[in-house]
C-alpha cells in the first residue's frame, strides 16, 4: 500500500542521510515500488536536514520520445532541493513531460479541454480532449525525452529491474525471484511499478553550511528583484507557488472539481469508507 511505499522511501532517505554525513555523498536505488507520490516532499525533507537532495523516478512508458507518436519512455519526474536560511528551501519538482499526467486527469474531472501540445490520442494524433489522452509529450522535445531515457538508465537498468525495455520488446527478462515472465505484447508491464534514485549531498563536506544558506537566500532575493516581464506581477522561485498553495489550503481547505468528488464517493461506497465532512 501507499503507507508501505512511504515507509520504504523514508527508510532509504534516513539511511542515505547517515551515509552522506559519513562520506559526503550517497547515491541510492529503490526498485519495484508502486506510486511514490510527490518527490518534492522527500527532497525538501532532505534540505530541511541541511543537505542537498536529488530524486528521480521511472515507470513503464507513458510518454512519446521526440519524433515518435507512441509511448516509449516515462515522463520521469525529478526533484532537487537545497536549504536556505531566511527563506524556505528551494524545491524544484517537475516531470519531463510538458505537464504532469495529473493535470490531464484533473481536466477530465473538470470537464475542460487541454491545450494542444500536451498529449496524443491512441492513434498518435494531437488532442485537446483529456478523455482521449493516451500518451504524454516531452517538455522541450528531445531534451525532455532524452532526460527521461537517461533517468531509466541510471535507475531501473542499474537496479536490475528495467521498465522501458520489457514494454518495448514485449519481454520481461528479469522478475523477482527466479521466475521469468514473458509478455506476449508490449505495454503489459503493471502500470504502477517504479524504480527511483535518491541522491544526497552533505553540503558541509564541501563548504560552510551557514555560508551556503546565506548565498541561497541572496540568490532568491536577487531573482525576485529582477525587472518583471510584461503581464507578471511577481517572479517565483522553485517551490514557491506550491508552498503558497499549501498554506492557503491548510487554512481554507482543498477545492475539488465535481468529477473528483464523484469518483471519491464511488470508491468510498465500494469499500465502505466514511468520507470527511464536505464530501
Describe this structure in words.
The longest helix has 22 residues, at 2-23. The chain is an alpha+beta fold and 279 residues long. The strands form 2 sheets. Strands 1-7-2-3-4 form a 5-stranded antiparallel beta sheet, with helices on both faces. A two-stranded antiparallel sheet has the order 5-6. 37% of the residues lie in helices and 14% in strands. It is globular and about 55 Å long. Strand 3 (78-82) and strand 4 (90-94) form a beta hairpin. The protein contains 8 helices and 7 strands; from the N terminus they run αβαβββαββααβααα. The chain has helices spanning 2-23, 39-47, 101-110, 142-154, 164-169, 209-224, 240-252, 258-271; strands at 25-33, 52-58, 78-82, 90-94, 119-120, 135-136, 194-201.
Highlighted features:
five-stranded antiparallel beta sheet; 8 helices; 279 residues; two-stranded antiparallel ribbon; 7 strands; globular; alpha+beta
Instruction: Give the helix proportion (percent range).
Output: 25-40%
Please describe the biggest sheet, giving its number of strands, its sense, and whether it closes into a barrel: 5 strands, antiparallel
Number of helical stretches of at least 4 residues: 8
**Oligomeric organization of the protein chains:** single chain
Distance between the termini: 23 Å
Would you kindly provide a brief summary of this structure?
This protein has 279 residues and is of the alpha+beta class. The chain has helices at 2-23, 39-47, 101-110, 142-154, 164-169, 209-224, 240-252, 258-271; strands at residues 25-33, 52-58, 78-82, 90-94, 119-120, 135-136, 194-201.
Amino acid at each position: 500500500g501507499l503507507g508501505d511505499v512511504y515507509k520504504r522511501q523514508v527508510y532509504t532517505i534516513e539511511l542515505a542521510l547517515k551515509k552522506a554525513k559519513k562520506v559526503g555523498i550517497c547515491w541510492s536505488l529503490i526498485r519495484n515500488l508502486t506510486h511514490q507520490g510527490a518527490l518534492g516532499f522527500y527532497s525538501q525533507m532532505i534540505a530541511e536536514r541541511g543537505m542537498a537532495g536529488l530524486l528521480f523516478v521511472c515507470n513503464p512508458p507513458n510518454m512519446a520520445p521526440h519524433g515518435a507518436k507512441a509511448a516509449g519512455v516515462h515522463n520521469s519526474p525529478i526533484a532537487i532541493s537545497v536549504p536556505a536560511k531566511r527563506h524556505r528551501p528551494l524545491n524544484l519538482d517537475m516531470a519531463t513531460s510538458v505537464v504532469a499526467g495529473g493535470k490531464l486527469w484533473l481536466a477530465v474531472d473538470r470537464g475542460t479541454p487541454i491545450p494542444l501540445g500536451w498529449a496524443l490520442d491512441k492513434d498518435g494524433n494531437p488532442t485537446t480532449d483529456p478523455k482521449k489522452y493516451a500518451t504524454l509529450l516531452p517538455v522541450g522535445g528531445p531534451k525532455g525525452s532524452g532526460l527521461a531515457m537517461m533517468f531509466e538508465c541510471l535507475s531501473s537498468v542499474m537496479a536490475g529491474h528495467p521498465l522501458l525495455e520489457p514494454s518495448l520488446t514485449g519481454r520481461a527478462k528479469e522478475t523477482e525471484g527466479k521466475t521469468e515472465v514473458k509478455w506476449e505484447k508490449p505495454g503489459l508491464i503493471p502500470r504502477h511499478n517504479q524504480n527511483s534514485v535518491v541522491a544526497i549531498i552533505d553540503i558541509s563536506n564541501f563548504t560552510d553550511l551557514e555560508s551556503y544558506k546565506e548565498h541561497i537566500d541572496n540568490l532568491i532575493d536577487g531573482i525576485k528583484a529582477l525587472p518583471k516581464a510584461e503581464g507578471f506581477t511577481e517572479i517565483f522561485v522553485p517551490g514557491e507557488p506550491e508552498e503558497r498553495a499549501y498554506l492557503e489550503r491548510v487554512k481554507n481547505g482543498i477545492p475539488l472539481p465535481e468529477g473528483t468528488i464523484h469518483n471519491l464517493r464511488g470508491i468510498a461506497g465500494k469499500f465502505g469508507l466514511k468520507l470527511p465532512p464536505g464530501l
